[in-house]
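Q: For a teaching session next week I want to show students how multiple molecules come together into a single three-dimensional assembly. I've collected the sequence lines for a complex. Could you give me the predicted structure tokens for the whole thing so I can convert them for display?
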Amino acid sequence: MTSMRERYVIAGIGHTAYGKLGRDTISLNVEACRNALADAGIPKSVVDAVFVKVPTSAHQFMYGQKVAEALGIMPRMGGAWDQGGAANITLMTMAISAIEAGQCDVALICYADNPRSGNRAVYARPRGDDAAYGWLSTAAGYAMIQRRHMHEYGTTAEALGAVAIASRKHGAGNPHAQLRKPLDMAQYLASPLLVDPLRRDDCALVSDGGAAIVVMRDRRARELGVREAVPVLGFGHGQTSWDVQLRPTLTRTEAARAAQTAFSMAGVKPSGVDVAQLYDCFTITVLMTLEDYGFCRKGESGAFVADGAIEIGGTLPINTSGGLLSETGMPGMQLIMEGVRQMRGTARLQVPGAKVCLVSNQGGTMHTHATLLLGS
Amino acid sequence: MTMPAPDITEINRPYWDALEQGRLMFQRCQCGNAWLPARRECPRCLSDKVRWEQAGGRGTLVSWVVYHIAYNDAFKDRLPYNVAVVELDEGPRLITNMVDAHEALACDAPVRLVIERDGGVALARFALA
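A: Of course. Below is the structure for the complete assembly, covering every listed component.
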């Protein structure tokens, strides 16, 4: 049984522009935090924790302290955490746990990176000694998983395409989105193979940008006069650890455990979710997340996503601001922010009457996973 | 453009030396667990009492991908090339290349070891059995 004495909220969200910005990550983090504090309507003087996800492409020693210094904050707790794209929800969980334990009061959680204008070698890196075999890049690990999923369950290119089409459709009208170009199935199927079976349009964007959220107790948000606090209903985590070629199965991950914990904490079932922001670094990730979360049975995600079911107006609209495939390739924080907008009722593509939003984050090659449930 | 060479260390040297001599080796712990690539401790029981064992050279194709872009210039002239995951009959899984035509590959197909020298290094590749 997972429980907390207090109720917690996301009090503010903020981000920079997305795309090719040519700015250092510290500056991007500062702008994102400034915007998140303004959104919450609180001064930085009340912040006493700064949790930072490390920039994927540009690791720096003591990075969390550099961000806190640039923010002019001497927090009680702070630092940088490296766990790939699941780190945002994990850092939020750590912040809430620390507040619950009386170690801090108001936490900023932020992330920024600049691989588009800077160095993107991290995405093409050799995977251990196996570079001699040509085993290179992040994309290839997902392609390896995708092939196996197609073999075991008959998953089609059209099923993967449905995911790309949904994210691209939703991002097309988002003025902040980096790629505002809708996609149809014929275009998806004609998209060039990068690492077969993976097509270009299965792959996340490479983006510069920063984003931040502010987390605190619901009671504290009321004291501070926060206008649009969004309740955190539950969260959960799970890690697969083994690298792709070593894990005993390629087609299921510890996402299932993450979701189970979050659903149980929130007292919500998959059928109670009105809208979802699912980590779409590659389209296969969304299909497997739907299965591991229990929205459909293992191997049946292809049928689940057919006929526009995951598009706005469908049974489970996903990635309503465009996700990693259209809004920004940023690893996950944009999904949390869009979840907050949906629960506030202020999303550009608002799901009418939505009361529960699910957010997934994952990192590495499905090594790490985190689930978040937000309420309205 | 030179091929990326394996980073040979005290831990993995027996693996690469054996391939040079035409044998594929893996590690096995006293608890029975077997694995690749080389490491000092067993990830199941954490013991450091591990020994090398020769693989029979038979296995199964778990999955494979075909690169149409080169993430390293050394592979530009080889496009399209494949990278595969093979599970040895003894249990360990490893990254490899299949020497067959891509159209012939199928998940779960039985495979056999084919050691090939490439870029000055002996590599453990596989062929459909």
